[in-house]
Amino acid sequence: MSGTAPLRRAGLVGPALVTVLVLVGVPLCIMVWVSLLGRGTTIGVDWQSVPSLANYARLIWEEDFDGTLLFNPTYLSILWRSVWQAAATTAICVLVGLPVALWMASLPRGLRNVVILLVTIPFWTNLLVRNYAWLIILREDGAVSWAVNALWPFGPVQLLYNDTAILIGLVYSFLPFMILPLYAVFEKFDWRLLEAAYDLGANRWRALRRVIIPLAMPGIIAGSMLVFIPSLGSFVTAALLGGGKSMMMGNLIQMQFGQSRNWPFGAAISVVLLALMMLVLMGIALWKKRAEQST
Amino acid sequence: MNSAPSAIAVRSVSKSFGRGDAMVRVLSDVSVEIGVREFFTLLGPSGCGKTTLLRLIAGFEELDSGDILIDGVRVDHLPPFRRPVNTVFQSYALFPHLTVAQNVAFALELQDLPRAEVRRRAGEALEMVRMGALAARKPAELSGGQQQRVALARALAPRPKVLLLDEPLSALDLKLRKEMQIELKQLQAEAGITFVFVTHDQEEALTLSDRIAVMQGGRILQLGTPREIYERPAHRFVADFIGEINLLEGQVSGHGKVRLDCGAEISAGAGQAAGARVTVAIRPERARLVRGGVLQAEVTHVAYLGTATIMQLRLADGGPFLLRAAADDLPAIGGRVQVDLPSDALQVFAA
Amino acid sequence: MNLRRLPLTREIGLGVLVYLYVPVVVLIVYSFNANRTATVWTEFSLDWYRKILANPSIREATWNSLVLAAAAGIGSTLLALAAALGTKTRFRGRGLVEAVLNAPLILPEVVVAVATLMLFVAIGVELGMAAMIPAHIAFCIPFAFLPIKARLDGMNPSLEEAAQDLYANRLITFRRVTLPLLWPGILAGFTLAFVTSLDDFLTSFFLSGPGSTTLPVYIFSAIRAGITPEINAISTIMLIVSVALVVTSFLFGRMRR
Which chains are within 8 Å of C by 3+ CB pairs? Predict the structure, then answer.
């Protein structure tokens, strides 16, 4: 009987595992291969070309007419913007999410469930639609734009199509991902620890810094991962609110598979994006391991 | 009380929780003065308001009315972190992310003391509870008794004027609890500060306290030394709650006479009007087996304890009576005995 | 002074709720505005809803989205159900298997989408439904897997043992005991997978071919062409459908606990 168990297990797990491996794992491998190839003429890739790192080099240098390599900041600045925007989004989400989660945990049970539902709903509504809503609010002939321009004395302000608009959209898209894990921490929080901190002479600020935040760290880390990673790879927000002027890596990748028809370069940027993500995940794993060892 | 300020003065304090129909009055018009270096115990059954009173002193709850003074200074408006008291929590509330040493140093660091001073005083506090060897451990790696000691050290380290202890021994097993009782008493002498101790364990209260306040239903029923509380309980509730006692119902039959429901007539109840229902109380060790005693009883159970014998008796009306006698005094079960009730051992409460 | 409530948390909390809902409310309100320039409110009207109902390309896109979401929902739920049953007991590599199944949750969608595009082009799969359905099934698997797995983990193992003790064979045990108990989890998993597929834009954007445009892809290109009240109306419908599905699935999951 027990001899057939592994077989039955393989039969149950196999189909899902194969589906994910074939439709996600294999494509990622192909992508790494394509990132080493040259650009094709009919489709986006020349399968026969000799593998090289030229596509990665293109992210940093461009070739002049006479073949000399010149430093080209265009792509690096997009890379930098992506990382910076994702980091800023994460930071804002922590700063805003922490008090919100604390507030939620202090609510009476009935009201608390309503607020949890209210925070969860955007989680499941269309990302495109939610970013589009900001497009309506921030656009030139919108009420917000009108009000800001009426109050701002130094000439017309453009609210859309800049880094700030993207930041607003990213925070809007991913804030619930930060609030919910933080709330999960505070829901189980032993509030007597806070009383103990006050009792030992900590004022509210110091109790927050020395007791609440250290104990909320697992939630902060989980939330930061859930916010940083999708922000880094986001496409829709910059496409709608950045208006082609402010691009992120996702948009640059899409461009190579759209207008530019340069699949190998797009694949190279994708690999860089994946690598950046891995780096962040590994950093967090390392940090966690060290934190666990010290306990 | 003398003219020096008491360590803690609680004046006409009232406190309710909830609103409207769900409102519960937890403390009503409680006043008490606690002296400097006193080991003061708030004793009562759960829900009597003792913990709420302690939390009001610590500053975790807000007063509805009245005021609280610590060392002669009003503290009603002060948050807990500005009050010169520290608390040992029932659950210890040790910070799980900090080591034992860091827990004990917590308050000292907040006082911005120099680092060497912090380390020295935290070390001292840990030595005081004999936990110096485990300073690098996290709370989760300690036993209940060890956590208890760390919680004590943490609360004592900032040298508070008053230490508040909220049922600190309730989570320990009996043997450890007895050990810690002795240690607490020694610690108090060593630290030379006031202890305010909350417990529902009357034996613990009698053992440890200089004075006890017995609380019930949000009021202090009696305030006194353990001896006063035990020997001269002011209320039927106090008599019943502290130690073992026989409560006999009866009616005042004339001047200084009470006819008990079991039929016997005794001399008691001098201040009561004739015809009033009363309860007569006597401790088991104060009643005596005497030929010709006023109570007729039948022996139903005998327990030999070595130092004494506990006898369970049945009175004429079927009511139980407990009697504690010298160890060699062993009547047979089912035998008939007579019990004498010395009038100086009797307490009479109006029903 | 409530010591547990830290200052400003309530204000920030209420502010965040406003921040989360004002844009959505604005969007919904403007979808009922008679005026084409969405800046000023003129009067209530259902014109835009009438217009989108009459628009054949929107109808086609909606149909495509529903077919795709149904296929992806059913496909991923079946695969996830089997996988959850297979990972019920501990075995070597179980953590790895679960990590692979959940990988689509953390991988950047834009990367997976273009990678899948390259795979399909390389092996000659024509873009359109034939490409979108398998891709959607793959990334919906974790959304179906997690609720089913949670339900299964919360199940009392002695129930299955009791059934077998009462002479039910493995199949009967599954049909008469496991499946009925698992049902709320399966339904929740299916709903989440369905909604995830319905809301997906990026994967469909890269893999849809002519004639197989989905609603989000249609909305995206419409926005690119210019903001119109019709987009507000479709967006409103999409929002309401998603919210309704998710809320019912949550209520259902809670009811049967």
Answer: A, B
Tell me the count of A-B CB pairs closer than 8 A: 66
Give the domain CATH number at B207: 3.40.50.300
Residues B284, B198, single domain; the answer is no
Please list, residue by residue across B115-134, b when 16 or more beta carbons sit within 10 angstroms of its beta carbon and e when fewer do: eeebeebbbebbebbebbeb
- Least Cα distance to A115 among C12, C151, C236, B20 occurs for C12
- Asked if residues B198 and B185 have their Cβ atoms less than 8 Å apart, the reply is no
Which residues of chain A does C206 touch, with a Cβ-Cβ cutoff of 8 Å?
257
Distance from the Cα of B125 to chain A's closest Cα (Å) equals 14
Q: Which candidate in B106, B142, B150, B156 is best for mutational testing of the A interface (most A CBs within 10 A)?
A: B106
Does residue B218 sit in the same domain as residue B302? no
Cα–Cα distances (Å) from C22 to A9, A141, A144, C131, C143, in that order, read: 49, 18, 12, 37, 28
Query: Which chains form contacts with chain B, at 3 or more CB pairs under 8 Å?
Result: A, C
* Cβ-Cβ contacts under 8 Å, B79 against chain C: 1, 3
Same domain, B174 and B283: no
Identity of the residue in A8, A27, A117 whose CB atom sits nearest the CB atom of C112? A27
Domain boundary among B183, B211, B239: B239
Domain assignment present for B62 = yes
Residue B2 in any domain: the answer is: no
Same domain, B260 and B235: no
B210 and B265 inside one domain:
no
pLDDT in the model for residue A295 = 52
Cα separation, C81 vs C179, whole angstroms: 10
**Helical ranges in B72-173 per DSSP H:** 100-110, 115-128, 144-156
Q: Which residues of B touch A214 (CB under 8 A)?
A: 97
> B287: domain CATH number?
2.40.50.140
Subunit contact A199:B155, Cβ cutoff 8 A = yes
DSSP secondary structure letter of residue C175:
I
One domain for residues B26 and B136: yes
Residue A66's contacts (CB-CB under 8 Å, 6 or more residues apart) are none
Q: Identify whether the C-beta of residue B350 lies closer than 8 Å to the C-beta of residue B273.
A: no
* Superfamily of domain covering C55-255: MetI-like (1.10.3720.10)
Q: Tell me: do B222 and B188 sit in the same domain.
A: yes
Domains defined for chain A, CATH in brackets? 2-71 (no CATH), 81-294 (1.10.3720.10)
In a domain, B99, yes or no: yes
Which among B91, B97, B107 has the least Cβ separation from residue A192? B91
Tens-digit pLDDT profile for chain B (351 aa)?
Answer: 445 678 999 999 999 988 878 888 999 999 999 999 999 999 999 989 999 999 999 988 889 999 999 998 999 888 888 899 999 998 889 998 889 999 999 999 888 889 999 999 999 999 988 888 999 999 999 998 899 999 999 999 999 999 999 998 888 888 888 888 998 999 999 889 999 999 999 999 999 999 999 999 999 999 999 999 998 898 889 999 998 899 998 888 877 888 888 888 888 767 777 888 888 999 998 988 888 888 889 999 988 888 888 889 999 888 899 998 886 767 788 888 889 988 888 888 887
- Determine, for residues C37 and A100 on separate chains, whether the beta-carbon distance falls below 8 Å: no
CB contact under 8 A, B80 and C1: no
Asked if C230 and C55 count as a contact pair (C-beta separation under 8 A), the reply is: yes
Comparing CB atoms, the residue among C27, C110, C115 nearest residue A27 is: C115
CB of B276 closer than 8 Å to CB of B252 = yes
Best of C2, C3, C5 to disrupt the B interface (most B CBs within 10 Å) is C3
Look at chain B and report how many structural domains it folds into: 2
Question: Structure pTM?
Answer: 0.82
ipTM of this complex > 0.95?
A: no
Closest chain B C-alpha to A226 CA, distance in angstroms? 24
Q: Select from B210, B239, B268 the last residue of a domain.
A: B239
Same structural domain, B286 and B230: no
What span, in angstroms and rounded, lies between the C-alpha atoms of C112 and A139? 32
Query: What residues make up the domain containing B119?
Result: 8-239
